[in-house]
Amino acid sequence: MANLRNRSGFWMEATLAFSETNEKGITKEVKERYVVEAASFIDGEKKLRDELNYANRPIKSVAGMVRPKYGTICFSDDALAESYYKVKVVITEEVEVKTRKGGVRTKTKAVSHFHLVQAASNEAARKAVVEEVYKNSNADYEIADVVKTRILDVLENDKHLQTLTNKEKTE
């Protein structure tokens, strides 16, 4: 299995619109999804524009920027892992609840956790979560859903800053 690297942070999902001209000379708007590590929406948009706004394909607009449900992203070093999958894990917990008569009873509660996993397939994403994220966990969990996303890339803070530093050195 490929090595996985987990990274927690403040992530933003954004849809970027680009104008592209096809071989027939017709200009169309193309939308792509990216994830960026950012503390605020303004910071996220700035990082996206700095990183992706290159001369032959300028960003027309940044729309639909949202804070996703996941806080952790699992990155793979496998060359075939080109897609990102959203994995929903349901953890069953027993919680003590006070009754009206002053007693205490145990109630089962299901809590959902989401992970974004870079993998080559649905099965690889599922396997990554089981073998890497929850391998040392004693929690009673179940993988409820694995969905391939339309996310093209994830921009991390240190990778982003490294790219900007390299650009500044060449200028």
Task: Provide keyphrases for this structure.
171 residues, alpha+beta, five-stranded mixed beta sheet, 3 helices, 9 strands, elongated, disordered C terminus
Description:
The structure is a single chain. The chain has 171 residues and is α+β, with helices and mostly antiparallel strands. The protein is 22% helix and 50% strand. The protein has helices at 41-52, 122-133, 157-170, and strands spanning 4-8, 11-21, 27-37, 59-66, 72-76, 83-98, 104-119, 140-148, 151-155. The strands form two sheets. A five-stranded mixed sheet has the order 1-5-7-6-8, with helices on one face. The longest helix has 14 residues, at 157-170. The chain is elongated and about 75 Å long. The two termini are 41 Å apart.
The number of E-state strands comes to 9
Helix content: 10-25%
The assigned structural class equals alpha+beta
Unreliable residue runs: 160-171
Return the string of H and E elements: EEEHEEEEHEEH
Quick structural gist:
With about 170 residues, the protein is α+β, with helices and mostly antiparallel strands. The protein has helices spanning about 40-50, 120-135, 155-170; strands at about 5-10, 10-20, 25-35, 60-65, 70-75, 85-100, 105-120, 140-150, 150-155.
